[in-house]
Write a structure and sequence with these properties.
Length: 751
């Protein structure tokens, strides 16, 4: 049993031996937060130490004779504003008389084995009831006649709790919900650093850190997607926590649209973390009997630093969020033609490239943007999902068959949510565009956004995509989304419901994903939004991999992959080897450096293979073989970050299997160093100290070490030093952008 309830004290304890989460019903009927962190045993009176305020002349309190009982600094589970709590709340309801005050008091609870699904929204799940336990608490506000359901799930195998909230209008009056976050939690101190994954187009999810300060600090998106700029993730870590030590709490929203992730430090240095749909511009009309479901927030805890936190998040996403079909099934190694041809191709070129892909031992050919309508540039034809006969005169079905006959699977790019002003779809359905009446519609990449809150639009796209999937029997779809939403408005919603637009839009996106993935369960989806502009757990539920950035420069990717790995598993990274000089940065790097970076992901190529030399082809075949040999580690191993590229000239990480028996390690040196003066060792993690390991380097040279040597002294890296000191003779590493890959495997042998 993972959830124990003390009915006398009305105290709830969720624990799986790794973490404990405790809350109770306070004397006003609200839920008070008691503890979240490493698993504890408690004799029960933990609630006696729930802190109420120290009354000052300035304190407001709920009862005349109890000046200390105030919500002002009390730690809560789902706070409301205005009745002695002045911090930002989790919920706001506008009532007929204009009031926003509410008072949700404990009504009942039920414990459920496993985890009920959320209606219409992606969420973590279990495949058997034994994997998790859920407690649903029902609270009730008598004045609005409204029910609030707070759901908490604890998983058996990971240090993770998921939460969500749902409100139901049980009364006679229409209510307007203008805030419903997914979760809120109050910590008793503010001695934390806040971590976030921030960036911009082509430099997504760089890890940023700041010390918590009094007041509000937040990250958010109001772009209609989770965004390149901020990811719906934040973590609080003890200030001296490292990659492998110290307490870290992570919060991740399973949602792909406007979000708010906020930390508020109050005047007694307590910390409130809240996360959910961004309340700005949000309103939801609740007629009698109607409910509103907020998305799920995933909360992970690690007492072992950031690598520990990542392991919990990677495990929960792999085991309980992505479609289990893709958990350990080999992902195809692809060739995508985007950076090879951009829009400029024809059937002959595509088949020539595909032939080369076969020769390079690749599995899948992906035809990117440009195959439909009159799409010869990004100025036209989005929405016209019919083959461009000028480029592909024999049609898509024939091309797909020809490619399959060569021995490759076939995949296709779509951008279903968009329409070009110059398109037949727009000419037929001008009212399908997101646009505010009487105002102009702003452009982004020369395109407009289709109104996915309109069911007719979603149904049309489903039919078109279904027909094309059947015609081409494709096995992979790259679903792109290249601009943010502006002038948000739906012609299908009445004025009083325009605040529902963004959420209804993303529900439409989820619906289309749901319909396609259930109709075509064998098709692999890769999400994309101008690179990594919608890389979030909501997308992972439908698409087990995502194109992490339009920036394919391997040095830039070191930073992006490092940051992204804080929350997301390596098996979800779309990583390709592209041409040199790189198209985004102009940087020249070796084929091997590019591949060594891309290996830690789902691996593929995005370049023109025509014209490769025989040596280059041999090298690529070796890279593909190396990836295929170790892909199981990328899919199911534990990713451990060893060196952060932001700290200096190096990056390093490794994938190790659960038992510590084998690992793939990589080290990257960005710029050449003149006379570094000493031999460098890379210290590994996650191995067995006493085990005897075989270690094969990039050139195939094999050495043997004990686990303790590898972890505490480290693998000698190539350097300027040439072993004159009696050390192993390690060849020099010359030039910028150098990398080494080591395959470590346990062996019977010396002890
Ligand atoms: C943006 C994507 O991130 C690229 O990989 C490519 O698919 C282009 N869109 C195509 O327009």
């Amino acid at each position: 049993m993972m959830i124990t309830i003390d009915d006398n004290r009305k105290q709830f304890h969720l624990t799986n031996g790794k973490i404990s989460y405790l809350f109770h019903v306070m004397k006003n009927g609200h839920l008070g937060h008691l503890y979240y962190g490493k698993a504890i045993k408690t004799v029960g009176h933990i609630a006696d130490f729930q802190r109420y305020d120290i009354p000052t002349p300035n304190t407001t309190h709920l009862e005349a004779n109890d000046p200390a009982f105030t919500m002002e600094t009390t730690r809560q589970e789902f706070p409301v504003f205005g009745a002695t709590d002045f911090r930002e709340p989790a919920l706001g309801i506008q009532q007929a008389n204009g009031s926003h005050i509410s008072n949700f008091v404990f009504d009942s609870y039920r414990v459920v084995k496993g985890k009920p699904m959320l209606e219409g929204l992606p969420a973590t799940y279990v495949t058997s009831e034994e994997e998790a336990e859920t407690v649903e608490i029902t609270l009730y506000d008598a004045v609005t006649d409204m029910k609030l359901l707070l759901s908490y799930t604890i998983f058996k195998d990971v240090a993770v709790i998921t939460r969500h909230a749902r409100v139901t209008n049980r009364g006679e009056a229409t209510l307007i919900l203008d805030r419903l976050l997914s979760g809120s939690i109050d910590f008793p101190h503010a001695d934390f650093d806040m971590l976030q994954l921030s960036g911009a187009w082509s430099r997504e999810r760089h890890l940023k850190e700041r010390k918590l300060e009094s007041g509000i600090q937040s990250i958010s998106s109001l772009r209609g997607s989770s965004s390149h700029s901020q990811n719906p993730f934040l973590a609080l870590k003890e200030p001296d926590a490292t990659e492998s030590t110290g307490d870290v709490y992570g919060f991740n929203l399973v949602y792909s649209s406007n979000f708010l992730a906020q930390v508020e430090v109050d005047h007694y240095e307590q910390t409130r973390v809240s996360m959910g749909i961004h309340p700005f511009g949000f309103q939801w009309k609740l007629e009698p009997g109607e409910s509103f479901q907020a998305p799920e927030v995933v909360m992970a805890f690690s007492p072992n630093g950031l690598n520990g936190l990542s392991k919990q998040l990677h495990d929960v996403y792999r085991n309980h969020l992505i479609n289990q079909k893709w958990l350990d099934a080999p992902r195809p190694v692809m060739l995508n033609n985007w950076e090879a041809t951009y829009h400029d191709f024809n059937e002959e070129i595509i088949l020539a490239i595909a032939k080369e892909a076969v020769d390079l031992d690749l599995d899948l050919f992906v035809l990117d943007d440009g195959w439909f309508g009159k799409r010869n540039s990004d100025t036209t034809s989005l929405g016209d999902w019919f083959v461009n006969k000028e480029k592909l005169p024999n049609g898509l079905g024939k091309l797909a068959q020809d490619i399959r006959d060569l021995g490759l699977d076939f995949g296709l790019w779509f951008e279903p949510e968009m329409v070009s002003p110059d398109s037949d779809l727009y000419r037929e359905h001008p009212d399908w565009v997101v646009k505010t009446p009487g105002r102009s519609a702003s452009y982004g990449r020369n395109q407009w956004v289709l109104d996915f809150s309109n069911k007719e639009v979603v149904a049309y796209l489903y039919e078109r995509m279904r027909a094309l999937i059947e015609e081409t029997q494709l096995s992979y779809i790259k679903w792109d989304m290249n601009r943010n939403i502006t002038e948000a408005y739906s012609s299908t919603l009445p004025a009083a419901q325009q605040g529902e637009f963004y959420h209804r839009y993303i529900l439409g996106v989820y619906q289309l994903y749901e319909n396609l993935t259930s109709k075509f369960p064998d098709v692999l989806f890769e999400s994309c939004a101008g690179g990594g502009g919608r890389f979030d757990p909501g997308m992972l539920y439908y698409a087990p991999q995502g194109w992490i950035s339009d920036n394919t420069d391997p040095v830039e990717r070191l930073h992006i992959q490092y940051g992204t790995s804080i929350a997301y598993p390596i098996s979800s990274f779309g990583t390709h080897v592209s041409a040199t000089p790189n198209h985004q940065t102009g940087r020249t790097t070796s084929l091997s450096f590019r591949a060594h970076v891309a290996l830690f992901g789902t691996f593929g190529y995005e370049l023109n293979p025509l014209g490769f030399s025989a040596e280059e082809k041999v090298e690529i075949r070796k890279q593909v073989a190396l990836y295929k040999q170790h892909q199981h580690l990328m899919l199911t191993g534990d990713f451990i970050r060893l060196k952060n590229p932001a700290d200096g000239n190096e990056a390093a990480w490794m994938m190790v299997n659960e038992t510590g028996e084998e690992a793939l390690v990589s080290h990257y040196r960005i710029l050449a160093e003149s006379n570094p003066g000493k031999m460098k060792f890379l210290r590994l993690k996650g191995l067995e100290s006493d085990a005897y390991y075989r270690c094969q380097d990039t050139e195939g040279v094999v050495r043997h070490y004990y686990g303790s040597e590898l972890m505490y002294r480290g693998i000698p890296l190539k350097g300027e030093f040439n072993g004159a000191n009696g050390e192993l003779s390690i060849p020099m590493q010359i030039g910028d952008f150098q990398s080494e890959i080591f395959y470590i495997s346990k062996e019977e042998g010396e002890v």
